[in-house]
Every structure is written in structure tokens, then in C-alpha cells.
Predict the 3D structure of the following.
Amino acid sequence: MSKISRIQIYDKLDTLQIPGTDISPIKFKGVKGLDISDDGNVEVRIELPSQAKGHETEFESLVRETLLTVEGVENVSVTLKVQDKAYGQVEQQNLLANVKHPILIGSGKGGVGKSTVTVNLAVALAGLGFKVGLMDADLYGPSIPTMFAIDGEPMANEKGQIIPFEKHGVKLISIGFLLEDDTPILWRGPLLHKAIQQFMKDVDWGDLDFLLIDLPPGTGDVQLSVAQSTRVSGAIAVSTPQDVALIDVKKAISMFQTLKIPLLGVVENMSFFRCTDCGHIHHIFGGNTTMDAGDKLAAEVLGKIPITISVREGGDDGIPVMILEPESEAATEFNAIAKKIAERLNS
Ligand SMILES: Nc1ncnc2c1ncn2[C@@H]1O[C@H](COP(=O)(O)OP(=O)(O)OP(=O)(O)O)[C@@H](O)[C@H]1O
Ligand SMILES: [Mg+2]
């Protein structure tokens, strides 16, 4: 693993001004790719508005010099592309113009339950009467096809756009529906960005109130690509109450901050286990640290989901716990979180 964090690079890029404008490449949503190698090579691709025409060499050196000040960075390679469009004259890129609220669901650590939380919140929001979509942006390990028990290829509409699947009131798209076999793809820079953009502009989402975007773990290129392609209403961080998970989720939160995405709060998953015989609560991933989670992260805990067999079975069998056991403690909590999100974003 490289010791240079993406957040350090984003923060540095955010201090720069695009020539001829008063905006940073991050705020302009111009950073289209970032690769960091273990030996300190940084490759960054930036798109600039037409105001920057003629200033490419100057801006390239500025980016290089600035990034070389980050500890551990040995070489910087900058690829710039100047667009025909000027900043200020056209609306900034928003590939999800018909979606009222795109919401990111992320975590630092893998396996803490992002996809489980995304699926159940999507079903809960649909149950509240909203028009809901779910984009599985985990290009490396898509789990939405399994969690909704959908196998097959989506159809295209007359404009050639992909028609998302629809189940339990939620419109769904995943790379898992589009790849012929399970061979993992080495997603790098431009290819990855293109795949994310296609999920936005080449999918017939229609009008949506909420589009929940399930991210891969960490703070990588998918996160960057999504954030630079649309206006995001907010992010939800998912964590278990363990210290190791909390350390990682902080990194995810800090990335959301750098990318100017408001944090809606943290969902504490696998928060506790309630003994089915005696009702006693066991804190499997640590003591009663649940409120500390909020303190440590300086973020609101939106809700606490227990570890239950039906949540796990629901994920494996493709029937979300919201449908499988709508009266369960977990489903009740998912509903309460969904209401909070809806109230907050619609107020
Ligand atoms: N509250 C819960 N109770 C029981 N099992 C759970 C709970 N939350 C998640 N799981 C199970 O834990 C496993 C990991 O969950 P999930 O795939 O949602 O995590 P993730 O953060 O999306 O993982 P990845 O980082 O790989 O994308 C799954 O088998 C899921 O069913
Ligand atoms: Mg997942």
C-alpha cells in the first residue's frame, strides 16, 4: 500500500486556482483520475475549462511543483485536457440532472455492511413512497445482484439507454448485470471513470427522489469519479463500532469533506447482538461504545443496526430484511434512518 494518501493530494489540488478563474480543480470537478504508485509516482488527469487555454504549461508545472511538496511523492505526471466550454457559462457537469438527491454510501474498511445498509435504506425509502434508485458503484466486488437475487442482463430502451432492473420498488444497476463472467477487471483511470459516467448518463433512471450509490471500500478513484460527475446531496458513512473500523471510516469522512460532500451521518452497523432466548444485549464489536462513535467521528450516528441472522440471510438469499422481516428490530431501525434522511434532505 502506498503511504501517500489521496486525501493529501486532493487537499493540495484544492489550494490551486485554474488560470482565468477563481475556482480550484477540485471544486470545478475537473480531477478525472489519480493513480498513486507504491514508489511515489503520482499520475493525475485534470480537465480544465476553456479559460485555461494557453496556460497549460504554466498550470502543469504548478500542479507538479505543488504535488512534489507532499511527503513521499517522487514523480508527478500531469495530463491536462482543456474543454471547449468555459467555466461560468455552462452549468457544471451533472450527469444526474433528473435525480433530486444522489447519496453516497461509503466506508473506509471493507465488509462493514455498506451494501447491506444501502439495499435496506433503498427499500425503506421506496416504502415511504419515494422514487428510489440504487447504483452499485462497487466495480471490483459488486454485491447488489446477489442481494436482490437478480441474474440476467438488463434491456435497452429505444434511445439505447440501459433500463435498470426494478425490485421492491427500487431501480437497480450494477456492473454485475453487465459483465458476462465473473473475471475481475483491472479498472484503471479512464476506463473506470467511463464506467461510472455510463452508469449515470446511459441508464434510463427517469425522475428519482433518491439515488443511493453503493461505493467500494476505501477512498479511491471510484469515489473521486462519482463526486466529480454529479452534484451529490450527501454521504452516509457505515462503520462497525470497532476502533479499527472507526479509524478507517474517519478517512472516508475526511475524503467527503475534501470533495465538499455534506456528511449526513454514520450508520453504526453490527452494533450489538440481542440474544434471541433471553433478550440480553451483547456488544460483539466492542463495549457500549455506540455514542462514542459519534464523538470520535464528530458525526451524528443516524442509527444502530443489530447483528441478526435475518440481515445476513437476507443479503445472501436476495431478500432484504426490510422485506423478509419488516417488523424486526433491524428493519425498524432502517426505517427510522430512512425517515431521518428524507426529512433532512427534503426540508
Ligand atoms: N447487521 C448485520 N447483521 C448480520 N450480518 C450482516 C449485517 N450487516 C452486514 N452483514 C453481513 O456481512 C457481510 C458483509 O456485508 P456487506 O457486503 O454489506 O459489506 P460491505 O461493506 O458492502 O462489503 P464490501 O466492502 O466488500 O463492499 C454480508 O454477508 C452481510 O450479509
Ligand atoms: Mg459492498
